[in-house]
């Protein structure tokens, strides 16, 4: 939609990978719609995933006993978070839609992207007790997890060895995005692209481009236990 | 048990934290039993969480198109993984029990520990298709997730806002440890230590020490969907 802002948080080492192509397809299609698209290319940025004292500029609130949650909350108030975090927060603040594009690593996102969640979504910025879940501070934004898997779709079913794919979406969609008040669109999953033909990988890219054409008309999922575990 | 080897993978920035104390209690109690205990103190080691080309020493299998899974699998065969990974793999190989000690960050482990999983548990070392889950290469080992939460126990129940705590254990216990063939002991969870009295925190440490006394007699959980979602 013209005027809409999209942030793509992207975690793949190889631009020529399917993840790289999925990211490019999204930039292209959404730009064509008139959206303004920003990409945080985490590996290219050498984004820091470790939550440490370096995230706070200047003095600590309590230098006797380092508590990352407390220190980043206080540093956020004082505008004393490290500049890489402030930049990411600015991108999030401006975005109407966050797309997370990554290969599934161990039933979750790669560590570099988990580090983005751990460090960027600071208390006071993304949530503020009791303002979490439906009243989280990032309400009125949308998020979409777009990822590739190693295993096939059959393994990720209720009777399959890896269980329903929705089981592993719970921490990411509910525990992170919903917690911050963000509404979650259905995930976009490309199963086992390494084991399909070049032709099928092209179809995966086309399907993503196609979905993006009508993305703004989609309703968020009902991000409750029923969606995940029934 | 005398002679048993334990690896504690520990992720907290502050030695004086409850996580730091829980780690120390485990070292002390298990050593007293005659176990040989090794600690990987991830923040102190400045452990690298990012999965990159730097993990492969020397030439790539395919330098045209970087695929982290393929490259680390091939580098493992050639003994050309970076030395920090080889060291961690040696510790895992020797261990009878892996204890993961961390504060829960966003329904999961901190990025620095996720990076340990992403980088250390290489194909060929931890699993080798079709040898995964019950036939994973790390079978005959045990794992235990020991962590602290921000939220109270009531929030982590079926009717609670954050859902049953077991839901978020699925990716870590089943998706990672069980996938590698490791048997999983019941998690050890200290709920909301920041919101209880000093006295109650001491009781948490005592309870952990107490549990460790009979840990080797425990039966692993049945790491199947029923345990997590029924």
From TrEMBL, chains A, B:
GO terms for molecular function: dihydronicotinamide riboside quinone reductase activity; metal ion binding; NAD(P)H dehydrogenase (quinone) activity. It is found in: Cytoplasm. Residues 5-212 form the Flavodoxin-like fold domain. InterPro entries: Flavodoxin_fold (IPR003680), Flavoprotein-like_sf (IPR029039), NAD(P)H_dehydrogenase_qn (IPR051545). Pfam families: Flavodoxin_2. Its cofactor is Zn(2+); FAD. Coiled coil: none annotated. Its EC number is 1.10.5.1. One of its GO terms (cellular component) is cytosol. It catalyses: 1-(beta-D-ribofuranosyl)-1,4-dihydronicotinamide + a quinone + H(+) = beta-nicotinamide D-riboside + a quinol. SUPFAM superfamilies: Flavoproteins. Keywords: Cytoplasm, FAD, Flavoprotein, Metal-binding, Oxidoreductase, Phosphoprotein, Zinc. The keyword Flavoprotein applies. Homodimer. The enzyme apparently serves as a quinone reductase in connection with conjugation reactions of hydroquinones involved in detoxification pathways as well as in biosynthetic processes such as the vitamin K-dependent gamma-carboxylation of glutamate residues in prothrombin synthesis. Belongs to the NAD(P)H dehydrogenase (quinone) family. This is Ribosyldihydronicotinamide dehydrogenase [quinone]. It comes from Nothoprocta ornata. The lineage of its organism: Eukaryota, Metazoa, Chordata, Craniata, Vertebrata.
């Amino acid at each position: 939609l013209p005027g809409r802002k999209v942030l793509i948080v992207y975690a793949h080492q190889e631009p020529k990978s399917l993840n790289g192509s999925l990211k490019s397809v999204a930039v292209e299609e959404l730009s064509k719609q008139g959206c303004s698209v920003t990409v945080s290319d985490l590996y290219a940025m050498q984004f820091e995933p470790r939550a440490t004292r370096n995230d706070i500029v200047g003095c600590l609130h309590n230098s006797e006993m380092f508590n990352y949650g407390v220190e980043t909350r206080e540093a956020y108030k004082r505008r004393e978070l490290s500049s890489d975090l402030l930049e990411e927060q600015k991108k999030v603040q401006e975005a109407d839609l966050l797309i997370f594009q990554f290969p599934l690593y161990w039933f979750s996102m790669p560590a570099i992207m988990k580090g983005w969640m751990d460090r960027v979504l600071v208390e006071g910025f993304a949530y503020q007790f009791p303002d979490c879940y439906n009243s989280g501070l990032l309400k009125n934004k949308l998020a979409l997890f777009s990822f590739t898997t190693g295993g096939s779709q059959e393994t990720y079913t209720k009777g399959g060895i890896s269980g329903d794919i929705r089981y592993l979406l719970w921490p990411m969609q509910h525990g992170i995005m919903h917690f911050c008040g963000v509404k979650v669109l259905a995930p976009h999953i490309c199963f086992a692209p390494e084991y399909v033909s070049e032709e099928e990988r092209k179809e995966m890219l086309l399907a993503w481009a196609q979905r993006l054409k009508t993305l703004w008309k989609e309703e968020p999922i009902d991000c409750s236990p029923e969606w995940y575990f029934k």
